[in-house]
Each structure stands twice: as structure tokens, then as C-alpha cells.
Amino acid sequence: MNIVALVYLLEHIEMLITIYSCFTSLIIMMNKKRKMSEYWLISAPGDKTCQQTWETLNNVTSKQNSLSINYKFHIPDLKVGTLDQLVGLSDDLGKLDSFVDQVTHKVASYLGEVLEDQRDKLQENLMANNGDLAVYLTHFQWDMAKYPIKQSLRNIADIISKQVGQIDADLKTKSSVYNNLKSSLQNMEKKQTGSLLTRNLADLVRKEHFIQDSEYLTTLLVVVPKSGFSDWNQNYEKLTDMIVPRSSQLVSQDNDYGLFTVTLFKKVAEEFKHHAREKKFIVREFTYNEVELAAGKNEISKLVTDKKKQFGPLVRWLKVNFSECFCAWIHVKALRVFVESVLRYGLPVNFQAMLLHPNKKNTKRLRDVLHQLYGHLDSSAQQGGASGAHDSVDIPGLGFGQAEYFPYVYYKINIDMVDSKA
Ligand SMILES: *[C@@H]1O[C@H](CO)[C@@H](O)[C@H](O)[C@H]1NC(C)=O
Ligand SMILES: *[C@@H]1O[C@H](CO)[C@@H](O)[C@H](O)[C@H]1NC(C)=O
């Protein structure tokens, strides 16, 4: 065995391990990025049975082509109501959907903000019903306790709207209280640092730097540029009369400035400031006061304590109510699928809702296959031709708005709450 090689290896093993672990975490990161967070929630009319509708879709998209992984999306027997009500609801549910979507993202991004330097833990804190978001979605179960299906569709939508509206309002109050606290603390902390020209000087000086309780004398604090130190030392005694000789002391310095004391007669203090300024020596207003000094330090530690005290309950509130919002959001999607399916496919209620997790590389193929399966459901979409028809078609007055239109009921659900702004 070559000893030199062995020694070399041992000496560099740490570096090699670092490189290796960087490399693997990079790969893990890239895989996470590649994992699609987009799902397609669709519905199609029941064939002879709904099970058959499901099998047909699953056969052509998943089993034969690996275009997607599919899940049955279970929607309970909801109350249909009248056609008029359904048409009205269709519009309102669209608005409710984007409202709940927005609040859900807001709660998630505020949680990220509150976590500050632990922001990398955001993803694992975003859960629905104590589980993974994808699992909640793919195994969706209507929450009968929260959203009783004996109620009309309109009432269920109202329950969700009120609940999420309350969360939105409380988020505004809670975040503004916490943000105020945070920025007061930041401001105070900023004053503890920064240039000697602006920063708080209290914790740089000590009692013995100052002449105290003198009827005639006072001690000033002067900020002197580094290039002016020798100028200061040679000349400060001559700036006015009645300066105590040898009274200047360098108390502190930063990259650009030094902080000097000088003791003189009170009655020349103003004149001294004036002459000092002419030579670019800046006198800082400062009175040594132990009581105030302690109060300042107390204020910071009080703010730090307050912030720590609020952090835990706030994070808990955000986590729980993120889950509430996310679950409410998926229920809105379920309501939308139900209403649109009844409007499009008619009564009696007979449709199968299905959740597709598209394989990222094959979304276009998947779209084509869905069009082959369901293109016949809408004659106007069919006229546009086989492949062109499923580009965005805006149908005014039908409440589809800017959304893409397809011959089948379709809603996109993106569960990425961390990166996407969508
Ligand atoms: C799905 O495929 C299986 C065999 O792979 C077949 O037995 C079944 O009839 C198909 N179902 C439909 C509805 O096409
Ligand atoms: C969720 O938010 C609502 C509305 O602000 C609030 O009443 C409820 O207590 C919150 N849940 C938790 C566990 O904090």
C-alpha cells in the first residue's frame, strides 16, 4: 500500500465527505423540484357504471401509457337544489375557490416569514389533517362534521366562506401585532450597531469616563474620523479656552471613526461644539444616566421575551389554520366538481370524479388522451379540431372566466405552497 496515498486520503477525507454530501443533497433537492405538485381533478359522466368510467380512464392513461397516476376522488351525495341555484353557485364557487386559495397561500407564506432562519422547515410544517398535503388530496374524504351534507350547497359554501374569512381577518391582526414587535426589536438592535455617528453609545461608555455632578465641568463625547486622530490629539486642547488638559480618552472605535471623551467647562461647551464641527469632529449629544441606560437594556430584553412568548402560539395557530384552509380549499374543489358535473352532464347525478397526477414529461399526451376519451361530450369544443380545441377558449357569460376550457369538468390543483406564486 502506498503510504503517501493513504496519508493523502486520510488528510482529505473530510473534504471528500463534504463534497459527497453536497452532491447527494443537490440530487435530493433536484428530485424534490422535479416532483410534480400539480394535480388534475376531472369528472366524466358515468358509463354503464361509474366504476367502468374509472376503469376506462385508468386503463388508457395509467396502465397502458404511464401518463399519470390516478385516484378516485370521492364526493358524497350532496343536495342538488334547483338549476337556477346551481348556475348562481357555479360563479360564486369560482370566487370562493380563489379566495380560499389566496388565504391558504397567505397563511403558508406568513408561516415561512415567522420561521425566519428556520424557514427550511416550512414544508414539513405545512400539513393537512396532520398528514402530507398530497396524501390528503389523493385520499380525500369529505368532512361530514364540519360541512354537513344535509345542508344545501349554498349553506356549505357559506360555512367555508365564513370560516376562511375569519382566519383571514385574524391573520391580519395577528401578523400586524407580531410584525410591529419584530420591527421595534430590529430598530433597537440596529441602534446597538452601526456607525459611531448614529449608533446608541450607551453600552460603549462607562461611568468613569465622565466627570459627574460637577457644578462647572462637563464631559463630551466626540466622534473623530480615523484620519483625524493625530489632529485631534494635537489640537483638541486648543479648540477653546477652559479645556481640561490631557482629559481626552479614546473610548471606542469602529472601521471609520473613534469615540473620544473630552472634559471642559460647561460654559464653553457650545463654542467647543462649533469649533469642533469646523474640523470635522462631531460632538454627540449624550448625558450619562445609569437609570436610563438600564431602562434601554430592559426594553430590548422585554421585546426579546415578548417575541419568544408569541412565537410558539403564533406558529401553532398558523399550522392549524393552514390545515383548515387547505382542507376547506379541497372541499371547495369538490363542490365545484359536483356543481359543474350536474350542470354539464345533467340529472340524475351520475358522474365519476377522478384525480390525476400527471407524469411531468407527458402532460401534453395526457391532455390528448383525455380529449380522445371525452371530446364528444362537448360539440363546440369538438368542432375546433382534435388537437387545437383544448387550448384556452373563453366562453363569455358562462362563468369560466379566464380559465382554460375543456369538454370535461377540469380543475387544476397545485399543492406547492412554498415556491410557486401560482
Ligand atoms: C381495463 O383493462 C382490463 C385489462 O387490462 C380489462 O379487463 C378491462 O375490461 C378494461 N376496462 C375497461 C373499462 O376498458
Ligand atoms: C384557527 O383560527 C380561528 C380563527 O382565527 C381560531 O378561532 C382558532 O382558534 C384557530 N385554531 C387554532 C388551533 O389556533
From TrEMBL:
<comment type="subunit">
    <text>V-ATPase is a heteromultimeric enzyme made up of two complexes: the ATP-hydrolytic V1 complex and the proton translocation V0 complex. The V1 complex consists of three catalytic AB heterodimers that form a heterohexamer, three peripheral stalks each consisting of EG heterodimers, one central rotor including subunits D and F, and the regulatory subunits C and H. The proton translocation complex V0 consists of the proton transport subunit a, a ring of proteolipid subunits c9c'', rotary subunit d, subunits e and f, and two accessory subunits.</text>
</comment>
<comment type="function">
    <text>Subunit of the V1 complex of vacuolar(H+)-ATPase (V-ATPase), a multisubunit enzyme composed of a peripheral complex (V1) that hydrolyzes ATP and a membrane integral complex (V0) that translocates protons. V-ATPase is responsible for acidifying and maintaining the pH of intracellular compartments and in some cell types, is targeted to the plasma membrane, where it is responsible for acidifying the extracellular environment. Subunit C is necessary for the assembly of the catalytic sector of the enzyme and is likely to have a specific function in its catalytic activity.</text>
</comment>
<dbReference type="Pfam" id="PF03223">
    <property type="entry name" value="V-ATPase_C"/>
</dbReference>
<dbReference type="InterPro" id="IPR036132">
    <property type="entry name" value="Vac_ATP_synth_c_sf"/>
</dbReference>
<keyword id="KW-0375">Hydrogen ion transport</keyword>
<keyword id="KW-0813">Transport</keyword>
<dbReference type="GO" id="GO:0046961">
    <property type="term" value="F:proton-transporting ATPase activity, rotational mechanism"/>
</dbReference>
<protein>
    <recommendedName>
        <fullName>V-type proton ATPase subunit C</fullName>
    </recommendedName>
</protein>
<dbReference type="GO" id="GO:0005765">
    <property type="term" value="C:lysosomal membrane"/>
</dbReference>
<keyword id="KW-1133">Transmembrane helix</keyword>
<dbReference type="GO" id="GO:0000221">
    <property type="term" value="C:vacuolar proton-transporting V-type ATPase, V1 domain"/>
</dbReference>
<feature type="transmembrane region" description="Helical">
    <location>
        <begin position="6"/>
        <end position="29"/>
    </location>
</feature>
<keyword id="KW-0406">Ion transport</keyword>
<dbReference type="InterPro" id="IPR004907">
    <property type="entry name" value="ATPase_V1-cplx_csu"/>
</dbReference>
<comment type="similarity">
    <text>Belongs to the V-ATPase C subunit family.</text>
</comment>
<keyword id="KW-0812">Transmembrane</keyword>
<keyword id="KW-0472">Membrane</keyword>
